[in-house]
Each structure stands twice: as C-alpha cells, then as structure tokens.
Amino acid sequence: MKAAVVGSGAWGTALAIQLCKNGHDVTMWTFEKELIPQMENERLNIRLSGVKLPPELKISGDYACIQGCKLVVMASPSFPARTVAKAAAPYIDDDAVLVSVTKGLEDGSFKRMSEVVAEATGRDVVVLTGPSHAEEVALGVPTGCLAASEQKELAEFVQDAFMSDTFRVYTSPDPVGAELGAALKNVIALCAGITDGLGCGDNTKAMLMTRGLTETARLGLSLGAKKETFTGLSGIGDLIVTCTSMHSRNRRAGILIGQGKDPQTAMQEVGAVVEGYYAAKAAYELGKRQGIDMPITAAAYKVLYEGADVKTAFSGLMNRGRKAESEDAGWL
Ligand SMILES: NC(=O)c1ccc[n+]([C@@H]2O[C@H](COP(=O)([O-])OP(=O)(O)OC[C@H]3O[C@@H](n4cnc5c(N)ncnc54)[C@H](O)[C@@H]3O)[C@@H](O)[C@H]2O)c1
Which of 39, 87, 230, 308 has the most CB atoms around its CB within 10 Å? Predict the structure, then answer.
C-alpha cells in the first residue's frame, strides 16, 4: 500500500521504518528540507540517530507526495499540528485513512490532536498511541500500541497496516481516553523527572504516577472517556514507559528542572520537543474549565509557567489535606 508519514521527527521516522518493514511503499514528508540530502544520501536522520533509513523509504519536502496514498500518518509535534494538517489536506485522497500519532492538546482550544486534524482536513482520524519510544521501535524492540477510533473498521485498517511480529497493535473504540492518557502522561513524566532531580526515590515516583493517572482519568471521564482505557496501553502503559526511561525527553527535562534549572534552559538542553510543557498548560486550563481537581497538573503549571519554586510546589502536594484514595469507594 502507498503510505505517507507527514513529519520526520524521531517518531515519524520510526513509524515510516515500521511501515517499510511491513512492505508498504512509504514516503516521509519533512519540514526540515535542509536535512533531505543527508537522509537521501547517507540514509541518516539526525532526529533519530543510530538508525539507518531503509533504502526504499522515499523523502520529500513537498506535500504533493501525499497524493495517491491510502494511509496518511500525521506525525508533527502538537504546536504546528493544525497548520501542517491544513497544508496537507488538499493532497489527501478521498479514500485515504488518516492517522494522528501526535501526543498533546492544542493550546487555547484544548482539543485533542485527532480533533485538530479532523477539523483541519474534514476527515475522520484514527489515533495510534501507546508506550513506544521511537528509538526502540526503529530497532525492532517488541512494542505494543493502540489504534483507537469510534469506527471499528478504521481502527482495524490501521492495526493491519502497522502490525508485525515486533509491533503489536490492539484496537480500541475510545480515542478520547487514548489521547488524553497520551497527552497527560507527558506532564506526569515531567513531574516524575522533577522528583528524580530533587533526589526523591522510587516510592515517590510510584506515588506520583498513580496519583497522576487518577487525575488524568478524572479529567478523561468528565470528557466522555472510558475508565478502562486508563489501565491500558495508552494509559498506565505509556505512563510507565515515560516516567521510568531516560529515552523520555519529558522526564529528562523534569530532572534538569528538579536540579534547579529554569524550564526554558532545561528544554533547550534536551533539544527535542518536550510535549509535557505544552500539555501542562492545556491540561491545567481544561481541568479548571471542567471543574476537575488536578493537583499534580496545577503544581506543574505553576512551576513551568509562573516561576513557582519547585521544592515549594512539591512540598505543597505532600501537605495537601487528608483524603481517601478513591472518591467512589465508599465505606460499608
Ligand atoms: N519520540 C517518540 O518516541 C514518540 C513516541 C510516540 C509519540 N511521539 C509524539 O510524536 C510527536 C512528534 O514527536 P517527535 O519525537 O517525532 O519529535 P522530534 O522532537 O524528534 O522532532 C520534531 C519535528 O518537528 C518538526 N517541526 C519543527 N517545527 C515545525 C513546524 N513549525 N511545522 C512542522 N514541523 C515542525 C521538526 O522538523 C522535527 O522533524 C510528538 O507529539 C510526540 O509526543 C513521540
């Protein structure tokens, strides 16, 4: 099948390689036209170092490369997702299946990335997400992801396109839960990194991850997500991989912030898109709009956007009032 991956960051590149391995005829569109000669001639992409691009992978800086493709994968970061989707839209065939793999929420509108791409293109959009470091997927490390769509046949189409003996794809009818889990785990990973940078331990991280997932699910349920999605690959799965690995730029940025660097310096040092920074603002504002208590997200927002002292913010979380673990457990 003819396929296009729109975006040549680490994740777009890993997915383009995965589609090539599955025998598809793949073109990767790149925003960074200056990198095309190196990608074409040396088969290297500086966005995903240590990996050779397969000889059959085509590279283009022209959106027209999308024409004739039956699968179009939108793989930009979240901040330019609407602009990229609008520019790509005229070239997308009527019968093409559109997939969003971007993790984040749109600034201002708080929309999920599949909603943004759907609005910009006027098309249904499948979500592909899960615990998947680009560096590992590109090397064929066994990985599991989720293709989520309210339309079963679209989710199954994407499952078939990507599935291989090293890349398992499950289907899900819950794009809302899948995308909220994906976007908000980056905020929690940033906070997990901060606790590492502050010198806290494994106990701290386990508490943060668990309580972070609780507030993510709380927000998700208020927006129509299914509870079980948060205990699946796009929820707890992605949270585990992001909070515990040094592949995670969100966690690495958090470590630097916990060690005393200001957020902008930390992100510059990481040198790749730190989606948790943007997601913290959107999630904080969305939580307020929905009337949802999200203490970890609020603390992250204050550190990242209001210059709050990181130790004070963490201590504020530890000194919140006493409460039961679950709001709906009830005592007999
Ligand atoms: N890296 C991973 O392991 C991974 C895994 C799953 C999902 N994701 C998600 O995929 C998305 C892309 O992440 P990545 O890791 O590929 O990013 P990256 O940091 O590796 O690369 C960023 C890319 O964005 C491009 N870019 C910069 N400004 C742009 C603009 N104005 N318009 C269009 N493109 C622009 C750059 O050319 C570069 O190719 C993110 O939402 C991320 O959360 C990443």
Answer: 230
